[in-house]
């Protein structure tokens, strides 16, 4: 095959086949994505955490409660006689939906009047919010039908709904916190990865090493200026979210900024670690992208609910920093809660930062080769 | 000072299956301008990296300024000036910014080091606000040298500082090196150019990780084992081919305007060898060709001592 | 202009390279300032100059990578601007930056370039085995060869399609002295077969190996002639000294 074009194509094929490393990534990556997506992509919702508020328990409320308890989709996390305990549960993210029976629920059913029940749903994620409503309604509907045929006359349960935190079901409210996380992750990790590996490629790193500068100083010196840049990114993203998309800002903006900075540090440290372990700029970029994009978009709960993923992925999602930041961001922006509810997640991020920095410093050899 | 500035003893370094350095041993005295000569892949950069504490040797020991390269690396790193190949500078910073950065990394300022670097830096000072990547090769070289000197090191390691630079800048650079040495600085330089080696106090010839010989440049040739003749004439290529089939030929190589012919008889009188060769050339029909016996130079010695690298078996 | 006697050259009337008032400007800056010279067929011509003197720009124009601002050049009998395709088919090029593909074997590289220049399979096979034999190489990945072998191989591949003129841009950087000389013997052999060799180098002793040399300074040709003539004219013992005298870097 010695036509000019043919010869060239053959050459390109040889290059591709001989670059084992890149070939492996290019073949494995799509496979991993398909599998991950397959598991993570779920529109059905499982494991809905339910609070039952039952001021005057009677036969009907008891029957319905046990039906909810028996349903595989629901998991009753609390039964309480008043509304007072419900709100904190929502704010802490410990409950997804509350079923509030009106007093005299059963007697109203018995006398043929419509009995009312309030369904309050955590609609930070509007998709799951509506789905959960749908499931709840289905339970009521089947009870209605059964009771009606038993009694020989129609029975009506009238659910009123309140979509908490996201009354208009804006999906943008769901995405924006996740988007901020994604953008911060990407840019921060990429920036430090490129900066450090560029230093290596230029040859200037060698001179820096043969100097009084210690590895930790070099690393900190690389991270700190990018913090400033990351801060600028956070500001612009938040301003855009507010001005353009009218995402609510119910909590403390200062806290949000601080948490965003903390989250950037995690990504910056990750970028440094990637650059310490890889050879060239090109590889550093590729690895930085893979290590941040895939997990942050698929496993962080940004789009696909973590609770619906298989257990393995749920466990893995614990080490994805974006997961924790999204909880924090949603909590502050949509629920208006503060550090008293978010301290655990904050601690996790702080711990991750310190761990990654420590590993980066250790793996950053003061010697070459 | 009695103890040498650099002591290398039995150093070995391997990368995977390749032996980069094998049983390397030598000393460098204080105030010496010491040259490491050898082609690409000889191990010069590897040796420098060991001495500047960037690489740990697999075997053997090395000390710089009396400090061990493995144990005392931080002490060494604050006293060494290092210029790795390819002028490692920050292209997007200006001349002045590069200089002040490297000064501050060593905890000093440009003012404190100015006196030492002045003869070199003055030549590029008019361009102090220009970005480093906009400089010519010769100017980058001067900047890199200034950056390596600004913190007043006790010893200087220059790894192929003249590669890729034109002949004029190379000469000037070596003038500056000799001036620095005259002021008492110990300097180790590596170079693939034999003509630069002549300007060192002593030279170590390095090939494939081995030291072939260490001596002052003038003495390198004295151990040349065979008589060396220089042949000069027109029709150079035909002459070359003819000399290859001359009797008692050991090696034939072009050398500038001449062709160097080495006779394989170790103890023959040079005059006799010259006469025989001149006759042979005349018989081949060449006219106006001169033949004379010459003293071997550093390049002749190098070429005689070690053949070029061969293709490795796969 | 005196042409040095060239060994075994076929008698040709037209010069291999003809340059007439060749100029190249970049905005205000004139990189090549109206240079004119000729190179005879089968000659080994050394094109010298400091970095920044305009050498690289001039070569790029001769091999058709850059268009001149004014002036003309003919290479292998064709105009470099009007007839660039014909020029490319009749020249070879080798530089330090361009190398053979390191992750392909020797034979694969030869097959590639043979294919690009339109040689037939049988012809490629024949020339491949001839090349391996004359260089004393066994087929292997180019990346595993020592630098000197890569250079010699790259030169041979540049000659694969038997070009009239071959352009070499600093081809012997960094290798040991013996390999450098072996490389130059390959150059001599090619010139003896009638190929014109246009070479730049910063090893001044290699300048002495050329039939004629020119030195570019600040975009102009400061001097041109055989090494012997130039040393005589400028009263210097070596080309190195001549270079230092003439070529102050930009």
Order of helices and strands of chain A: HHEHEHEHEHEHHHHHHHH
* Percent helix of chain C: 25-40%
Mean pLDDT of chain A: 84
Strand order of the largest sheet of chain C: 6-7-8-3-9-10
Radius of gyration of chain C: 18 Å
Let me know the largest β-sheet of chain A: 5 strands, mixed
Task: Give a written overview of the molecule.
- The complex is a heterotrimer of chains A (369), B (314) and C (250).
- With 369 residues, chain A is α/β, with parallel strands linked by helices.
- Chain A contains 14 helices and five strands.
- Chain A is elongated and about 90 Å long.
- The two termini of chain A are 43 Å apart.
- In chain A, 37% of the residues are buried.
- The model of chain A has no long low-confidence stretch (mean pLDDT 84).
- Chain B has eleven helices and 14 strands.
- Chain B has helices at residues 44-51, 73-77, 95-105, 110-121, 137-149, 167-182, 194-197, 217-220, 236-244, 270-283, 298-305, and strands spanning 6-15, 18-28, 33-37, 59-64, 67-68, 80-83, 155-159, 186-191, 202-207, 210-215, 228-232, 249-255, 258-263, 290-293.
- In chain B, the strands form three sheets. In chain B, strands 6-7-8-3-9-10 form a six-stranded mixed sheet, sandwiched between helices. In chain B, strands 2-1-4-5 form a four-stranded antiparallel sheet. In chain B, strands 12-13-11-14 form a four-stranded antiparallel sheet, covered by helices on one side.
- Chain C is of the alpha/beta class.
- Chain C has helices at 55-62, 84-90, 106-116, 121-135, 147-158, 177-192, 204-207, 227-234, 239-246, and strands at 17-26, 29-39, 44-49, 70-75, 78-79, 91-95, 165-169, 196-200, 212-217, 220-225.
- In chain C, α3 (106-116) packs across α4 (121-135) and α5 (147-158) runs parallel beside α6.
- The longest helix of chain C has 16 residues, at 177-192.
- Chain C is globular and about 50 Å long.
- Classes of the chains: A alpha/beta (369), B alpha/beta (314), C alpha/beta (250).
- At the B-C interface, α6, α9, β12 and α11 of B face α5, α6 and α9 of C.
